[in-house]
Amino acid sequence: MAIFSHKITLFLVLGLLVIGIGIPYAIYYSRRDATGMGVGVLVMIMLVAGVAIALDRLAVRFASPLWVSVGELAVLIVAMISYSYSSRTITLDLSANPSPYFVVIWTNDQPEMLVFQQRFPLNKVAVVSSGTVALLNQDVFSSTDVKLPAQWNGQFSRGMTLDHPRFASAYFYGPEAYLNKPAEVDSLLKQAVREATPN
């Protein structure tokens, strides 16, 4: 155990914590989770922690624990930034929009026509206080949240895949009253696409 009792580093501490906490949780979930999915995830996390510890112990043979910890901290920061970038979202804030419905059109090449405000760490918010249509590039933001007006009294959404050279799909957002009006919703979606198509 001397290998763990000296040359303390960031990955050593974090790795031992992950394994120490993961083992009892894995035992607990193995008795309650019939599918074993929870246990599998925990085992994978502990394996990653074990590999990190092994690489850490190898690194301290060639560098001081301080510099190894600095490098490990840099790796963690890069990993966090990468994860935040891959999971970034855009929020369309329609809470002050008086329109009776709203349509989001996902495009292949059309740039966003909205003004965005940055939200920590990499998310963006666009306040849409007027109009009924927004164009968003589907390759830029893979996840979109929509903050709907409170006066809609419930909400309804419906999507439509488009056979269009520039537009990939369109999504309708409106009050619950549109729930039983699929033909009208489809008509409004098609109208929004026609109006957004350059002449």
Describe the structure.
The protein is an alpha/beta fold. The protein folds into 2 domains: 2-86; 90-196, no CATH class. It is 44% helix and 21% strand. It has 5 helices and 8 strands, in the order H-H-H-H-E-E-E-E-E-E-E-E-H. It has helices at 2-5, 10-32, 37-59, 65-86, 182-196; strands at residues 90-93, 102-107, 117-119, 123-127, 133-137, 144-147, 156-161, 167-174. The strands form 2 sheets. The chain has a 4-stranded mixed β-sheet, with no helix packed on it. A 4-stranded mixed β-sheet has the order 5-2-8-7, covered by helices on one side. Strand 3 and strand 4 form a beta hairpin. Helix 2 runs antiparallel to helix 3 (37-59). The longest helix has 23 residues, at 10-32. The termini are far apart. The model has no long low-confidence stretch (mean pLDDT 83).
Write the layout of secondary structure elements.
Layout: H1 2-5, H2 10-32, H3 37-59, H4 65-86, E1 90-93, E2 102-107, E3 117-119, E4 123-127, E5 133-137, E6 144-147, E7 156-161, E8 167-174, H5 182-196
Parallel strand pairs: 1-4, 1-6, 2-5
Antiparallel strand pairs: 2-8, 3-4, 7-8
Helix pairs in contact: 2-3
